[in-house]
Amino acid sequence: MFEVSVAGSFIAVHAVTISGVDETPHEHDWQVTAVVGNEMLDDDGLVVDFLQLEASLQAVLATLEGTDLNTNDVLNGMNPSTEIVAKYIATELIKRVPSPARVLSIMLTEAPNCIATYRL
Fold this sequence. Notes:
Blueprint: E1 2-14, E2 17-18, E3 21-22, E4 26-38, H1 50-62, H2 82-94, E5 102-111, E6 114-119
Antiparallel strand pairs: 1-4, 2-3, 4-5, 5-6
């Protein structure tokens, strides 16, 4: 299995509800790592073109950049936990990664030492 990854970031506000209690809204500089893989390489010896993968990730992150995740329509009213946001990024990136390469995981860092990974 071959794997490649690209990283990106976005700034957004959220307030997670935990056990019925709403956090105070706060901002993060979210850090994202997307891992894409395939069993074989293409004719150019690539899993996927890094530039294409970076552009695809940035297009997904643009839907989150500068928003309040609690009211951002792309999350469909879900509690904007780091786990939910990571799943959203993966779900959207899947639509943009050319087959036969596939998204394997999204690692999303909310704050130092606070990381959620969504694996497909």
